[in-house]
Amino acid sequence: MKRMLSGIKPTGQLTLGNYIGALRNFVNYQDDYEMFVFVANLHCITEYQDPKDLSKNLTDAIALYLACGLDPKKATIFLQTDVHAHAELGYIMACNTYLGELSRMTQFKDKTAKGEKNMTAGLYTYPCLMAADILLYNANYVPVGEDQKQHVELTRDLAQRFNNKYGETFVVPEPLINKVGARIMSLSDPSKKMSKSDETNKGCIYLLDDLALARKKIMSAVTDSIGVIQLDKENQAGLYNLIEIASSLTNRPMQDIVDEFAGQGYGKLKGYVADVVCDTLGTIQNRYNEIIHSRQIEEVLSDGAKKASAIADNTLNTAKEKIGLEIKY
Ligand code: AMP
Ligand code: TRP
Q: How many Å lie between the centroid of ligand 1 and the Cα of residue 263?
């Protein structure tokens, strides 16, 4: 069985974009791959987080993994800091990464271009930690949304570089990106990604949003004045995004949805998208409410940490030996 690994960084509540671009795929893949899914808590603190909020978001993320259908009998689910090897290999990766490579990362460049102040060294070196996350498990595939492709590509370069310098050590992973739903856009500004850090709160649907609020966000999503239901991503980005959301959640081809609503007003289509989203959210939230009040999270994390640590420690030790970091007696 090929191995797959992915993670989410809960710097806020998980979003519909996280679900469509990442989480639902983890669930689909867990039967056919040896699956590792973790909560990337070290990645959260590259920017300051209120400690109380952070802790709550981490608990919610694990509960939502389970509520979305990840099965701890099939997938290894764990918290990044429960496996110490991540930080250690992250440092080793940083020593094999050039400053130029990190400066070329889109996320870093975007933040620099926006003139963001007080950026931390952790933010700059975060792709090295992400490479370690993946390489520790010798993952063959990394299912992610479009925005993470560049980081997985850097991971490939780092694995190859390490293998060339020190001898075959790491599996070179491949990103796995869906054709539909790899980049869900903001409902209030369809030129931007739907993101946890949405300032207006109107463009982003959170998995734990009240259903009436989620419906309202969809009904007031920005569209266009063309008024024709068709697939034109360039000129009707908002409409395209709504159809893509519904298509992802129902597994219906996008054209099928267009055919059903062609000739009708945008309101009708939005109503359908809202129904589909509320159905999905409702199911997830019911399961979330059961899980959050049980002891399941504790058990899942304790099992996951044991399984993940055994594999990660082994890879880390091999890497350290190859580098010559160990003293042989
Ligand atoms: P993050 O929340 O940045 O840790 O992202 C976790 C996963 O969700 C990554 O695989 C992202 O690519 C994916 N993701 C986040 N936002 C979106 C979005 N708007 N559309 C599709 N995938 C997304
Ligand atoms: N950097 C990813 C994000 O922000 C989260 C992440 C951390 C990740 N480590 C990973 C994703 C390893 C896949 C594999 O979305």
A: 33
7 alpha carbon to ligand 2 midpoint, in Å? 5
- Cβ neighbors of 284 (< 8 A, separation 6 or more) are 19, 64, 67, 68, 207
What is the Rg, in whole angstroms, of the alpha carbon atoms belonging to the chain? Answer: 21
How far apart, in whole angstroms, are the C-alpha atoms of residue 39 and residue 50? 17
Name the residue with the closest Cα to ligand 2, atom 8. 7
Q: Which residue has its alpha carbon closest to ligand 1 atom 6?
A: 8
Catalytic residues: 111, 193, 196
Domains of the chain are: 3-177+295-323 (3.40.50.620), 211-289 (1.10.240.10)
Q: Which atom of ligand 2 is nearest to the CA of 130?
A: 9
- Ligand 2: centre distance to CA 259 (Å): 37
Token pair 């110490």 is at which residue? 84
Q: List C-alpha distances in Å: 140 to 35, 152, 247.
A: 10, 11, 28
Nearest CA to ligand 1 atom 18: 17
Mind listing the pLDDT tens digit of every residue in the chain (329 residues)?
999 999 999 999 999 999 999 999 999 999 999 999 999 999 999 999 999 999 999 999 999 999 999 999 999 999 999 999 999 999 999 999 999 999 999 999 999 999 998 899 999 999 999 999 999 999 999 999 899 999 999 999 999 999 999 999 999 999 999 888 899 999 999 999 999 888 788 999 999 999 999 999 999 999 999 999 999 999 999 999 999 999 999 999 999 999 999 999 999 999 999 999 999 999 999 999 999 999 999 999 999 999 999 999 999 999 999 999 999 88
Q: Is 173 near ligand 2, meaning CB less than 6 Å away? A: no
Question: The tokens of 232 are what?
Answer: 């034109």
